[in-house]
Design goal:
Elements lengths: L2 E6 L5 H14 L1 H9 L15 E3 L3 E3 L4 H18 L3 E2 L2 H7 L14 H6 L4 E10 L2 E10 L6 E8 L5 H16 L5 E7 L6 H5 L12 H13 L3 E10 L4 E9 L2 E8 L6 H4 L13 H17 L6 E10 L2 E9 L5 E8 L6 H5 L12 H4 L9 H13 L7 E2 L3 E5 L2 E9 L5 E9 L5 H5 L12 H17 L6 E9 L4 E9 L5 E8 L6 H5 L12 H13 L3 E10 L5 E10 L3 E10 L3 E13 L4 E10 L2 E10 L8 E12 L4 E16 L2 E15 L7 H4 L3 E13 L10 E11 L9 E13 H5 L8 E13 L42 E14 L4 E13 L11 E12 L2 E10 L9 E7 L4
Parallel strand pairs: 2-4, 2-5, 3-5, 8-10, 11-13, 14-17, 18-20, 21-23
Antiparallel strand pairs: 1-9, 5-6, 6-7, 9-10, 12-13, 15-17, 16-17, 19-20, 22-23, 24-25, 24-39, 25-26, 26-27, 27-28, 28-29, 29-30, 30-31, 31-32, 32-33, 33-34, 34-35, 35-36, 36-37, 37-38, 38-39
Helix pairs in contact: 1-2, 3-6
Length: about 900
């Protein structure tokens, strides 16, 4: 009959396990000792023998004092056997059964009568031989049931003093041999239908032929349970005449069938499914169910639902299959009603709140922007931002406690507690260490010298400045250590920047990696670093920026790689390519062109050579334009840019329709830092249709061919092409038509433009103006008719509209023909724009602006007159929408003429070429 030794169950059933274990240990004290001693189960002491074994006294072979040795041997053997619960047949009784005067031990056939009349399966006997002081013991074990019938055991010692230890060793070996139940004869698994038996057996230690040890079996149970496939694991130990059979009985966990989500409304099921870790055909796991519940709750919290309840319902429609249903009670959105700032004296709560990114108070447009929804993961980040702000303004001991969130009814209240501490000024600033320039030269690089109060950010920036300064000289591994000495009494911080320059490092090889389509040379020609030149981290950063500006790659990294020479390194340029072919269509509206449609097919990295091929089309209510262009950014692998454009442009004006066809050949070349020189040659053939009968003669004379050359320079340091916040863009252009180029027109035009962007908080020195921008733009132009030539009206200047002077209609600011009253353009113009741009809804990217525009256009026979200015002021909104930039501007004409409106709206949406 099988004996259940041990079971492993889930935590929900500990009582049954404890009762079963106690019963087993009470019923079988031998197993208890085996567990405690971690010994084979057969080697256990006790009064009830667990081994079917008896011993006959030893036959003594000794030259002297044989009787004394016999008595000693019998006494010691009896003591050893009693400790094991095994009996020693008394010598007189043994002598009556067998003769010690003949061959010893007796033959197997002579023992048949003994085995027939006794219960023991095994009988052991042997001899003790003494030679001088040395002794030896030979033992034979007879098996009454199995062939071969005898087994032999032998041991020696240097003297009789070691006899007891010798007997203990031999008896232990014989007991282990005789107790066949301590040997495992088979290990099997029952109850598994899906999990492979081999996988289970490979997870345990017990195996066929090994000794049965209770502690090992207990560990095997744990190992099987840890596989995670079973709801219950037990073991059965079945003793037989040949040994013990081990059977691990398992109950497999059910598989997940359907997983359903119900009750959701505000969040789509497709958005919930990714956070549910319970999946079909997986083994049901309560930890994964609970994890999924927490994930769903967290998802709802991120959307503002802090009272959402999620429960899991499990059902078993068929054996081995469990359906899991997540039932959601969403509740209502809960917003942050108030952000409380405590402990702040130096700065207002309003200023500090502008630093926060993860939490905002609910506002008028929260239903659009989700402002007021608490982002728990961002609270610590916001606390760090407040801390950094104080540390960067002299409060180097400032601390911000852990943000507290309290729910009161249907509102959340968030509290940031601040301990400001004292404000520290900048004291002395020194440089030390391995200086490669005069100390004053290096000190002049440090911004911290110009600061009144200590700023940790400025210190970090200065460390980078010094590191880059040394890197520009080839010391790629220069280290700068800022040492800060606080004068607590004087509230002053003294600074010392210590420099270790390291050694000069040269570039051995530049390796280009990751480019599958783009040719190496396209990347290499953008690199400011060169092989065999000094490694320069400033040029490395410049190289990264220039390769990224190509627009061909998702990511660009440059990493150094050591070589065998300590003063040389290889440089790996790693790129990740992205698709460079685009097909785009769009629509928009502007007050100058009404409804417009546009499309473009282009390839920015044509054939992997870095060339660009594009076909563009733009159609609006008053114009249509088609353009085919090709650009080679590096002609013959030089820095020379070349390109060609072919176009057809039709535009309707009040008094005529202008139809132009032509082409231009473009060139460009970088000349100094971020300045680029460009020039081009163009051919344009213009015809005028639908000319009104009363149209000005100047308009009628504007039909013909223009051959022109254009030359100019441009410098652009803006951080972004659209919605820039820092940097500037400057350009100057000259356009010439006439002899010796041929054509019907002869003129020269000059245009210059300069635009600057300034962060508001730097201009006004207040955190209140963070994320705001001041934009100043100045533009001027002059065009003159060359001797013997004509100047077409469409080459003159017209102002007004969203891109020049707001508050006026497009092209409205222009001199008029004295006879017809038509606007015919001027030969001189200037205008300026001053804008203050600020966020309206930061999360949505919606911005507002307040502006002042001024300028004028002057007729050919008039001089520059800055006493007569067209000016407007107003406000607007702008948004980078998915369809392109959107702008709505309202301008108020500060001094309208009789034919001018007092105000005007300008609106545009959609990109342009």
């Amino acid at each position: 009959m099988a004996t259940r030794i041990f079971s492993s169950r889930p935590p929900g059933r500990p009582l049954l396990f404890i009762l079963l274990l106690c019963g087993l240990l009470t019923a079988n004290p031998a197993w208890t000792a085996a567990v405690e001693a971690d010994t084979p189960m057969a080697e256990t002491p006790g009064t009830n023998p667990t081994v079917s074994l008896a011993f006959l006294p030893l036959k003594i072979h000794a030259a002297a004092k044989a009787a004394d040795l016999t008595a000693t041997a019998d006494t010691l053997l009896q003591q050893v056997l009693m400790a094991k619960g095994i009996s020693l047949i008394p010598r007189p009784q043994a002598a009556a059964l067998f003769s010690y005067n003949t061959t010893w031990p007796p033959a197997r056939q002579d023992l048949a009568g003994y085995f027939a009349g006794h219960d023991q399966r095994f009988l052991a006997t042997g001899s003790l031989t003494q030679t001088g002081n040395a002794i030896s013991v030979d033992l034979t074990v007879f098996d009454g049931k199995e062939e071969p019938a005898t087994s032999y055991f032998f041991a020696t010692a240097d003297s009789t003093d070691e006899l007891e230890g010798l007997l203990q060793k031999l008896v232990a070996q014989i007991v282990t041999f005789a107790d066949r139940t301590s040997r495992i004869i088979s290990v099997t698994v029952r109850g598994n239908t899906r999990v492979d038996t081999g996988a289970i057996l490979r997870s345990i230690t017990s195996s066929q032929g090994s000794t049965l040890v209770r502690k090992t079996v207990a560990q095997d149970l744990k190992s099987i349970f840890k596989l995670g496939f079973f709801e219950d694991v037990q073991v059965e130990a079945t003793p037989t005449d040949d040994g013990t059979k081990l059977t691990f009985v398992v109950k497999e966990k059910a598989l997940v069938g359907e997983v359903t989500i119900t009750g959701q409304d505000k969040i789509k099921e497709d958005d919930i499914k990714p956070v549910v870790t319970v999946q079909r055909h997986q083994i049901i796991n309560s930890n994964e169910v609970n994890k999924s519940i927490q994930n769903i709750r967290q998802l709802y919290k991120e959307k503002g639902f802090y009272n959402t309840e999620v429960t899991a319902k499990l059902s078993e429609p068929s054996p081995g299959k469990v359906e899991v249903g997540f039932v959601i009670d969403e509740g209502k959105k809960i917003y942050v009603k108030e952000i409380r700032i405590t402990g702040n004296n130096a700065y207002s709560s309003k200023e500090i709140k502008k630093l926060l990114e993860g939490v905002k108070e609910k506002g008028l447009f929260s239903f659009i922007t989700d402002a007021g929804l608490l982002k728990l993961g961002m609270l610590e980040h916001d606390a760090d931002r407040i801390t950094s702000f104080y540390h960067n303004n002299g409060y180097i001991e400032a601390k911000v406690g852990k943000p507290e969130v309290v729910q009161e009814g249907e509102w959340l209240f968030v509290t940031f507690s601040i301990s400001e501490g004292d404000r520290f000024k900048v004291g002395t600033v020194e440089v030390a260490g391995e200086l490669i320039e005069e100390p004053d030269t290096i000190l002049n690089l440090l911004q911290i010298r110009k600061e009144k109060y200590l700023s940790r950010k400025t210190i970090r920036d200065d460390v980078l400045k010094l590191t880059d300064f040394y890197a520009e000289k080839g010391y790629a591994f220069a280290e700068v250590r800022p040492d800060i000495d606080n004068d607590l009494e004087g509230k002053v911080v003294n600074l010392k920047f210590t420099v270790q320059k390291g050694f000069l490092v040269y570039i051995n090889r530049i390796n280009i990696k990751g480019n599958t389509d783009t040719r190496d040379k396209v990347i290499r020609r953008q690199l400011a670093i060169k092989e065999k030149e000094l490694y320069n981290t400033v040029e490395v950063k410049s190289s990264i920026a220039r390769v990224r500006r190509l627009g061909y790659f998702e990511d660009v990294t440059i990493t150094p790689e050591p070589t065998l020479e300590k003063d040389q390194m290889d440089v790996n340029v790693q790129v990740k390519e992205k698709p460079t072919g685009t097909f785009s269509v769009g629509a928009g509206y502007s007050s100058s062109e009404n409804l417009l449609f546009q499309g473009e097919i282009s390839k920015d990295n044509f054939l992997g050579r870095g060339q660009k091929l594009a076909l563009q089309a733009k159609i609006s209510g008053i114009s249509s334009r088609y353009n085919l262009s090709f650009t080679e950014p590096s002609f013959l692998d030089t820095k020379l840019l070349t390109g060609i454009d072919i176009y057809n442009w039709t535009r309707e004006y009040d008094d005529y329709t202008k139809d132009s066809q032509g082409f231009s050949v473009r060139f460009g070349y970088p000349i100094w830092r971020q300045w680029t020189l460009f020039w081009s040659y163009g051919y344009d053939e213009t015809s005028l249709d639908n000319v009104k009968t009363y149209a000005s003669q100047e308009i009628r004379d504007s039909e013909g061919i223009t051959n022109f050359i254009k030359m100019g320079m441009v410098r652009d340091t803006r951080d972004k092409g659209y919605d820039a916040s820092t940097g500037s863009r400057h350009s100057f252009t000259i356009k010439y038509a006439g002899k010796p180029l041929g054509g019907d027109f002869a003129f020269t035009s000059y245009e210059a433009e300069s635009g600057w962007y300034f962060p508001g908080d730097q201009i006004l020195r207040s955190l209140f103006f963070a994320d705001t921008t001041f934009h100043l733009n100045l533009s001027a132009g002059y065009v003159q008719r060359n001797a013997g030539g004509r100047l077409p009206v469409y080459e003159k200047f017209y102002l007004g509209g969203i891109s020049t002077i707001r508050g006026f209609k497009s092209g409205q600011i222009s001199p008029k023909d004295p006879l017809t009253g038509e606007r015919v353009g001027g030969d001189k113009m200037w205008y300026s724009n001053l804008e203050y741009i600020f966020p309206l809804i930061k999360d949505a990217g919606l911005k507002g602006d307040i502006f002042f525009d001024a300028g004028n256009v002057y007729a050919v026979d008039k001089d520059w007159d800055f006493g007569f200015i067209k000016a407007s002021t107003g406000l607007g909104v702008r948004w980078l929408s998915p369809m392109g930039p959107l702008r709505l501007e309202w301008g108020f004409n500060l001094k309208p003429a009789r034919d001018e409106d007092k105000s005007n709206w300008d609106f545009s949406i959609g990109g342009s070429f």
